[in-house]
Amino acid sequence: MSRRTPFVALAVSLPLALAGCGAGPAVVGMHAAPTESSDGASITPERATDVAASVLEEAATVREDGGKASPEERAAVFSGPALRAAGAAAESKDEQNHAGGGAEDLQVLGVSRGTDWPRAVLATSQDEGTQFLHVLVAAAADQPYRLFADVPMAAGASVPALAPVDEGSSVTIAKDPGTDVTTAVRSWSEGVTYQPPKKAPEGVSFDDAFSTALQKNAKDKDKDLGDLGSYRQKQSTVDAASASFELAAGGRLTFVPMTRTDTITASDKLKVLKIEDPAIRRVLDTDKVKKKLSIEHAETLAMVTPATGDATVVGVSDVLESATGE
Fold first, then answer.
1. Are 168 and 40 in contact (CB under 8 A)?
2. What is the DSSP letter of 66?
3. SS (H, E, C) 248-268
4. Measured on CA atoms in the order 69, 16, 197, 265, is the torsion positive or negative?
5. Is the model's pLDDT at 146 over the cut of 90?
6. Kind plus residue range of the DSSP H or E element containing 250
7. Is residue 120 a contact partner of residue 148, using CB atoms and an 8 Å limit?
8. pLDDT digits (tens, 9 = 90+) for 81-120
9. Are 134 and 56 in contact (CB under 8 A)?
10. CA 242/CA 176 separation, integer angstroms
11. Do 40 and 6 meet the contact criterion of CB atoms below 8 Å apart?
C-alpha cells in the first residue's frame, strides 16, 4: 500500500546555525551622496557612520511594512542583492535574516577610495545577537546611498582587516568580481551541491558553519525521505553585480548574488507531498504537490578570497523567493 507523508518545513526552508552580528534601521533614499575626499577615502569615517546608520534605519522601516511597501519604496532604500531579497521577503513573508531589533554597535569597516563612482561603505552591526555585514552603495553623484547587501555572519566567522577607513579601499561593483573570486565561488557551489562530488574542489574551505550546515541538512533530508523520494540541492550564480572590497593584506571580501534551489522528487511509493510551511504554500499557491517540488532562495554569499590560502564563506543571507510543483 502506498504511504502518505507530510512535507515539512525542514525539508525546504533549510534553517542554518548562523550567528554573529545583525543589522538595524535604515534611512537612505532621501539624502544626496556625501561629498568625497579627493585624497584617500571617498568620504570621511564620521560621514560614513552617519550614512550607514541612516540607511539601516530606513531599511528597518521598510522591512516592518512588509508587503505593504511598494516596489518603488523598496527601490528607494535597497539595491542589488538586498533589493532582490527585500522583494522576495515581501512576497513570501519569509524574512529570516533579521529578528526585528535595532542596529547595535554599528561600526564602519571600510569605504571606497578616490573620487570615482560608484561609491561604497562596508559596515557591521548587531541585530539581537546576530552579527551582520552591510554594504551601502551610491551609484552616481546624483544618487543616494542604498543598502546593497545585508548578510548575517556565520558562527565563528571573522573578516580580515581592510585599509584604514580614512585611507579608503579599492572597491569593485560589477558583474565580474574577478577570476579569483569567480573560481572560488564556482568551486564552493560544486562542493556544497547535493549530492556532492566524490572529491571536494580545491582552493576553498568547507569548514565554515554555513557550508557545514548546508551539507549536513541536505544529507539528513535525503535520508529522511528514504524510498519515498529524493532530495537535491544546488547553488548557482546570478547575472547581477557583486560588491568586492580589497583587504589590507591582499585578497578580497566579496558579496555575490546567488540562487539556491532545493528539489524534492517523489518516488512511485509516495502519493502526495503535503506542504506545511506557510511561506512555501504562499509562493506556490497550493498546499500539496504529487511529483516534484522545487524551491528557490535568493542568497547573498559573503566570501573572503585571501592572497594566499583557501577562500572561506563568512556569511550568507537566504530568503525564500519562488517555488514550483508538479
1. yes
2. G
3. CCCEEEEEEEEEEEEEEEECC
4. negative
5. yes
6. none
7. yes
8. 999 999 999 888 876 666 444 567 899 999 999 989 999 9
9. yes
10. 7
11. no
Residue with cell 519562488: 322
Classify 164 as helix, strand or coil.
coil
DSSP β-bridge partners for residue 150 = 134
CA distance 81 to 27: 18
Residue 31 confidence (pLDDT) = 32
| DSSP-assigned letter for residue 231 | E
Read off the C-alpha cell for 240.
547581477
**Residue whose C-alpha is closest to residue 120's, from 215, 51, 216, 26:** 51
How is the chain split into domains, by residue range? 3-325
- Amino acid at residue number 321: E
DSSP state of 311: B
- pLDDT digits 0-9 by tens, 26-75: 222 223 344 444 458 888 999 999 999 999 999 988 888 777 889 999 99
Q: Tell me: the pLDDT tens digits for 284-317?
A: 898 888 889 999 999 999 999 999 999 999 999 9
- Cell readout for 92 is 513570501
Q: Is the peptide bond before 195 cis (omega within 30 degrees of 0)?
A: yes
**What is the H or E stretch that residue 210 is in?**
helix 209-225
For the chain, give the longest Cα–Cα distance.
75
AA identity, residue 198: K
Q: What dihedral angle (degrees, nearest 10) is formed by the CA atoms of 189, 193, 196, 200?
A: 20
Specify the pLDDT at position 39.
56
